[in-house]
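Worked example 3 (structure in, sequence out).
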């Protein structure tokens, strides 16, 4: 679990977005590849977002992205 101060532990990397990236405009998506999840940040309702969803990516619910105890 990452916080505003500490990055996620390796091998995980922080998903990069602009300073004003909010979940109102951006969606965090993931896809399982070769036994691990890879992540992406996409502008909601854009062509790239739709393309990722068509190729089997899933959008992460907001509840799973909030800081706090890990939701399973």
């Amino acid at each position: 679990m990452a916080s505003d101060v500490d990055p996620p532990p390796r091998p995980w990397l922080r998903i990069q977005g602009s300073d004003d990236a909010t979940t109102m405009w951006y969606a965090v998506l993931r896809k399982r590849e070769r036994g691990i999840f890879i992540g992406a940040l996409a502008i909601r309702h854009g062509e790239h977002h739709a393309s990722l969803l068509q190729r089997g990516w899933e959008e992460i619910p907001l509840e799973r992205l909030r800081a706090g105890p890990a939701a399973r």
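Notes: The mean pLDDT is 78. Helices lie at 47-54, 62-65.
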